[in-house]
Amino acid sequence: MFLRRAAANAVPTPSRSSAHLSARSGSLSRSRRAEGRPAHLLTQLVKGVVIMASVAATHTFAQSASTTAPAGGVYNLIVGTYTGGKSEGLYVYHFDTQTGDMQPVSVAKTVNPSFLVVSKDNRFVYAVNELPGDNGPASLRGDVSAFGFDAASGQLTFLDKVSAQGNDPCYLSLSPDGHYLFVANYSVAADPGGSFAVLPVQQDGKLGESVLTVHHEGGGPVKGRQDNAHVHSTVFSPDGRYLFTQDLGTDKLWTYLYTPDGSRGLVSPTEWRYTDVKSGSGPRHLIFGNDGRHAYLTSELAATVTVFAYHDGHMKLEQVEKLAEPGFEGTQGAAALHLSPDGKFLYVSNRGDANDISIFAVDGESGKLKRVGRQSSLGKSPREFAIDPTGQWLIVGNQNSDTAYVFRRDQQTGLLEPNPKRIDIGSPVDFKFVAQ
């Protein structure tokens, strides 16, 4: 707290919103330490922000799992859920890309693993433990759990758990060099508010305690949803130089330089600091196009998808598309978005009363979108979905209906074919394919 106050008082900022960075060193609140972590700290003052970070030395990971087609066309599919109802944690299935069938393999018990990421070598899985939620005490911090994963057998083995250093962790990304795991803390509570934390990844797959925590401050005009900052995702640029943190509460895409060599600390604000989006829109998730020249953003509160032209850390707005049908009057909530493996189609989920997936064709030159269809999720609250690496199937989870549906996908038109396969699973909310 001292560092946050000192940073805020050091240099006034003209913006309503600001970001403060702090780090931990010396004794840790838990018994485990990050192995191989240098004892010294790198300290820097940048535009009124105090940055203190320790640099860990670990081996390389990447954010997404391998997309090489396995023998027999069968992948592991790991499903994250909300627990407390019919779910116990993480579920592993064998997914047959020839038929779209799913066979249950194993379960790893853990609390509210609502988002997960898999190491590039498929040996480790990291999942948030999203706590405390809407009704929990603000003093309760969420966690991130690490699991070893045997892709051949589909078995998860718990390794360790560390604090996310904030409330309601909801998104994870591995740094391009694989040395760090970045976790977005949405934070329902105003104190501590939205933030992201940086966890070092050890060679054995375990996580060290946070070496850096960045707090955003500010808010937006939508009462009850934008009373304070809500960091909803942490996404690296295609070249790995920039980190974008989408803040639903402040209506900003905060932009940081990633400098693991310590030249500017671990992360530092860019000169322009952020990209503004429409007031009250609530930016949620960001992905980059296959060409690396365009980016796509869901705005939850406005229920839109936005196209940006991208170059060297800068975003230029090109297009905004509404997700709902013309004349729709129910509640909405834009959530996930994913490109087909070939990058030709973009799919976006919309919750509330809409409960559907919008399908857009992507112009190969301009990156702009053209709607080609819309598909009901056949349930309530399609928070997340995934397209299998072969591009033949799309699976969507209906969080509030305890169901998931596997749609066959027409790779020429992008449309989802009728009569999907139904899977009963408690509160499914995230899906990751992993080659065996």
From TrEMBL:
Biased composition (Low complexity): 15-29
Keyword annotations: Carbohydrate metabolism, Glucose metabolism, Hydrolase
Keyword hit for Acyltransferase: no
Pfam families: Lactonase
Record GO terms (molecular function): hydrolase activity
Origin superkingdom: Bacteria
Keyword hit for Hydrolase: yes
Enzyme class, UniProt record, top EC level: hydrolase
E.C. code: 3.1.1.-
Region listing for Disordered, in residue ranges: 1-35
Protein family: Belongs to the cycloisomerase 2 family.
PANTHER family: 6-PHOSPHOGLUCONOLACTONASE, 6-PHOSPHOGLUCONOLACTONASE-RELATED
Protein name: Lactonase family protein
Organism: Paraburkholderia ferrariae
Species lineage: Bacteria, Pseudomonadati, Pseudomonadota, Betaproteobacteria, Burkholderiales
